[in-house]
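Methods, example record. To illustrate the input and output format used throughout this study, we show the complete record for Alpha/beta-hydrolase. The sequence lines were provided to the predictor; the line carrying structure tokens was produced by it.
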Amino acid sequence: MIDHVLGRPSTKFRKIQVFTVLLFWSLYLFRGNKHGPPALRNLSSRLSQRLTVWQTTVGVFLWLYVCRNFAKVMGLECPEPLANLYSRSFFRATWITTALDAGFWTAMKIKPGWLRDIASLTFTVYYLFAAEQADEKVRRVRATLTVDHLRVSWNKGTTPYLWALASLMRPRLTKYPPRAIRIPRPPQSAYREPTHAWLYFDGPLSTLRDQTCVILDIPGGGFVAMDPRSSEDRLLSWAGRTKVPILSLDYKKAPEYPYPYALNECFDVYQTLVTTRGRCVGLSGQTRPRIVLTGDSAGANLAVGTALMVLESGGPTGSPRWDGEIPLPRPDGLVLAYPALNVRVESWMTEEQMSLIQDKSARRTNRNVVQRKNMEYERLTPFTSPGPSSVDNLWRSAFPEADSEAVGAPPTSDKIEERLQEENIAMQTAALAENQPKPVRTRIAVSSMISYVHDRILTPEMMRAMIILYIGPHNRPDFSTDFLLSPVLAPEALLARFPKTYIITGERDPLVDDTVIFAGRLRQAKLRQFRERQELGLEPSRRAFDEKDHVEVSLLPGVSHGFLQMAGFFPESRKHIARCATWIQSLFEMAAQREASTGLHPGRSGRPVFPDPFDGRQPRHHSRRQTGESSADEDRPLEMGARTLAPLTQRSDLSGNAPSREDGTSQAPRSPDPSQNRPLTTGTTSPAGTELHRKRRNAPSRISLPGADGSVSDKRPGAERPRAPSQGSLSSQEDLLDRRMNGLAGGLMGMGEGAQTP
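The corresponding predicted structure is encoded as:
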């Protein structure tokens, strides 16, 4: 109460209040009268003769329990927002996840590591029983999130006790454990630090040489946390089912390495896989391996961005734009789980976005999504339904092309027209009652991010924190056009060449709208390309367009975000992991069928019309550097380079020093000057003005977080980009936008009072 009287809620005042109350009553119990104040002494003395100490203790706790739940007993409690949000099994999984988050956040400030791990599990057990206190704890922490909170929450699966428990509960999926390796950068990359990764392969290194397929996995974690070991259930299951090597990247995380460092790192690994023909991971290198990109959440964002950069490397049509250019072959497919494809957190949906969700070919898949948007209005107005009539809505929802067709129809008599309308409306109503969702009764559709604002896994506060940390304090990207940051904005010219994509996501995921919109745009681009090819005679005129040849979306009812990470306490998770493994196998089979039908082998040609520049017979235009030398120390994990195997040394990024080249010279951090962004291709613009072929961005090598003493280095990574001050300035001549961003970033990075944990 003290903090409310002073008008400044603070954890310090709450601590003082607790100690004050405890000290006062402790002194009174030890030094005051044992029967209490004079007014209650007679009553206390009489009750002490009839009640034992046990009866008194139980009675007090029972009375406290009744007082605490008085609103529930009397029916005065507020409604539960999560009552019908999830399925029963997923609700139980979120209950366990919330208790774990609350327990680990409560113990995160305990200094000794061994004591912190034990206290985290102890508090978790308490919060499993005190579920309401866990919800309140998580709500308060998410309101004042820092990067430490995000990492403690998402990296908890790799703590010793939870790791041991998960290993005991996990069935034996593979005979061989994962191997830590490092992937060298390609010679043309602006960076020299190798990429750390884990290789999941159910077999010895001798059989690895005979493999012709590779899964390039990019794990999620909000761009700030989680390495491949956090996704052991998924990766081990895929390795055991597919018998294909899985290269899962431990890319550099924000805010130390902001956008686009992680994206460039993933692209460099893909380029190294192609140019070395898989020798960097232990393959023989006789043929170019087939590559399938996979990713979940933020990793899916990087996977799609990597695929777009690969498509950009070959120009708008994928062919070389000048003599000597080597376009990279596109991936053989993508498998994405609950992808984060849009960093613009929006509240309302546009007409174009709604038309993509309500597309006729995807209505059966998106039926529950449209129903949910309709219920948003019906929940607020249960007794009224303004707007167009239901018949009009049914007509427009079922046949959106009817209006355009009716313009050129010849006039008919009123009676015939009325009769035809009645028959058509009756038929449409019957069909829609069985197969179609209810129409949206309002033209204002709320985005899924706002509809599921109370989601237990992913909240708007967490999205805001991750976006700010990922972009960094020195970048100001164009959120409306930067399709590598928000792949949902990718131009149609690139989407038309996008590989086959499988997407699995929860129907109650706050990111589900961006998923179905991206799938709709991909479907549109493929359909337009298919019709153009038919007009040119490149496709049979009788052949019908099948969208499943290009994109398939699976929406899971009653499920939200991150379900593939919950295999230990969400039984359906293993079924969905196995389904993704089946998709991966089908992508490799389709790639093999395409090669057999064209008569071209990946070792002979990367594309049907161009010779493969990586077949080893072409003269090299660069010198390859060796990544290391062999060593007799067999206890360390191996570094698999293009030619040699060397023991993995301590990561250079853990020290504060700049990376060193092989000649001993230090590499200076690159400048984020926009004139030097993405030196891969030259920029050209489409007729509509959309930039299709932009250069690769360069990212700062590192950003320093505040140290233990709270000091922050004044050095910025690279040259500071000048920016004009905002139009409205404060009286202190400080830039308003700088003040706002410094306040946001300072709280997220643990600087200032805004980072205090409740």
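Annotations derived from this record:
The chain has a mean pLDDT of 75.
DSSP finds 25 helices and twelve strands in the chain.
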